[in-house]
Description:
Strands 8, 9, 14, 15, 16, 17, 18, 21, 23 and 24 form a ten-stranded mixed beta sheet that branches. Helices cover 19% and strands 42% of the residues. It has four domains: 12-78 and 189-215; 87-184, Helix Hairpins (Orthogonal Bundle); 218-260 and 279-408, no CATH class; 412-518, no CATH class. Helix 1 runs antiparallel to helix 2 (139-184). By secondary structure, it is α+β, with helices and mostly antiparallel strands. The chain has helices at residues 88-134, 139-184, 282-286, and strands spanning 12-17, 22-32, 35-44, 54-57, 63-75, 190-201, 205-215, 218-229, 232-243, 249-257, 288-289, 319-321, 326-328, 335-352, 361-367, 377-383, 386-393, 401-408, 412-424, 431-443, 453-460, 469-473, 484-485, 490-497, 502-513, 517-518. The radius of gyration is 43 Å and the shape is extended. The chain starts with 11 loop residues before the first strand and ends with a strand.
Amino acid sequence: MSTHTPPIPFPVTAVTCLEDRAHVERTLVLDLAAGVQRLRLGPVSALAVDRTLHAEVSAGHAARVLDVRIVRTWTPRAPLPSAADDSALRRRARAVEEERIAAGRQRDRLHARLGLLTRLAADLLREIGEGAGRGEAERERWTVELDRVDGERDTCGEQLRTVEARLTALAAELAEIRAAVRLSEAEPAELVGHVELTVESGAAGPATLRLGHLVPCALWRPAYRAVLDGDALTLETDAVVWQRTGEDWPDVRLTLSTARSALAGDPPRLAEDRLTLRDRSAAERHTVDVELREEEIAALGPAPVVGLPGVDDGGEARVLHAPAPVSLPGDGRAHRVPLSAFSTPVTSEYACSPELSPLVGQVVRGENRSGHALLAGPVDLVRGSGFAGRGTLDFTAPGAVVELGFGSSDDHRVVRETEESRETTGLTRRTVVTRTVRLHLSRFSAPGEHGERVVVLRERIPVSEVSAVQVRLRGDACSPPPGAVDAEGIARWDVPLPPGGRRTVTLVYEVSASDRVSGL
């Protein structure tokens, strides 16, 4: 098909943005004639994946698509601007070029004059030689003529050297200007795609054409904005979309999906896992090797991340819809698209885990009333004093509890002290390790502040996985005893603090092991 045929505009009407690509849908009403005809539509993104191209005509029209393909061409460089609209660089380049031409002409004139003076000096020396041979002696005239010719040659040579130096400088400046013009004004060739469509229509009339294809260089990630106002939390859900597909998406219906179309659906290959049995040695039968290890507990909250994390949909593909048409330019920048917002009452607590951090942070919990799952992503935290920082949000199902930390409270301070003693009993030869943890909690309040504030302290106790090692909480030595200890060994205290108050919490536990245990 001739590329000179004017293409029919084929705008983007709907986009489904996936985790690392996008599915673009275009819709157009064509005025078809009866018979087979070829149409040129576009331009479209040159990054469109050919094997995903699909076109269909509306069912109410007696027409069918015989062939559809994408043809890509390089567009020529943009024409140079006219002289009246020249940039400052081009005007400077023209002035330097004119000065260089004038300096070149002056150099040519000086070369001609210097050659003439050289021939004149040769003729004068020949005349002096011939006169001296005939006995003529005009010493004064010959001296004056030679001095005049030599003076003219020196002057002309100095002017020639000045002009050549100026020509060299002008050539260097002109090269720099032309390089700057190429970088600032020259437009590189652009790869543009067009859709060539072959349609067979049984009757003339309008028909709706739909075309869809995948395109790379487009992705999205969830982001949130949480506003805490007293006992109410407002959570706004946004989608941050990037796209650099080579074309803009004006006023499109945007759908956001967590489906991963790039992942293969084949099951993993099975490999043999051989298990062998052997008799334990005498040393192994009398010794139990143990070691202390750190294990993260997911209930304590997600680890902080830098930037936007990957899409976490809880293992099930999720689909979100933008409530209104949006425009997304293809500039590769991040654009926030509002998706939903809801308000919910929350409960607030001040919590601290002194082993991890001496800061006391405010944690709020409320119900997810958005009507859809909240995917994992960053949260901009805002409260009465303004922007409070950035946190992270875990995957939260509809109706589940949303938990957010709103930063530390500067009027609290926690100091942690630990002591450890080790002893061995005589008869059973058991090793007993006693650890004492003291937590000093204080509150510095502003003048005129009233009312107690409950601070939730959490401290961990080791959990044994073998019967040879036992861990026992000494409740009689704890002051006060912990309110609860969960299965992961996390002890909790609810400590009320009045303004300017101080409290000390003591935790004592024992780790005992028999003489067969090593590594404790």
